[in-house]
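tool=predict chain=A
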Amino acid sequence: MVKLVAGHELCRRFMQIPGVGPIAALSFMTAIDDPSRFKRSRDVAAYFGLTSRRWQSGSSIDVQGRISKAGDADVRRALYEAASALLTRFKRKDKVKTWGQTIERRAGHRKAVVAVARKLAVIMHAMWIDGTFYCGDPTASAADVAAHAVRKDRRLLGALA
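tool=predict ok
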């Protein structure tokens, strides 16, 4: 699995996001296949069932429920695990982690992990479309981000040897 991921530049870019490992990167890439299918990056979250389910009846208008769970369950599970790792195991400063922690204080851990998983899907799709790299720390310089990406790539390619 690691050899396959190391051969794809896109998967290595996805793995620059804290919490996203080889399985999450590869499953996201294979599930989307063609990023131009989606008009907006936030439509990807709905494609994987990470948005709230809505329904209407005669007396209640537009009730929001739990997540819809539409789409590929394996990708949704991988994104959930990546988000959980970002919130619980990643120790450095990151803007998505900070955003998730504010949700966690307000609504609980599970809802925060689902919200971060949705945001990760949106970020990954936008990175794919734009060809950009992830920079989670707004105070980091471009040279620091590039150096961190090179170190992570070396570690991944070193695991292959």
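The mean pLDDT is 85. The first strand starts at residue 52 and ends at 55.
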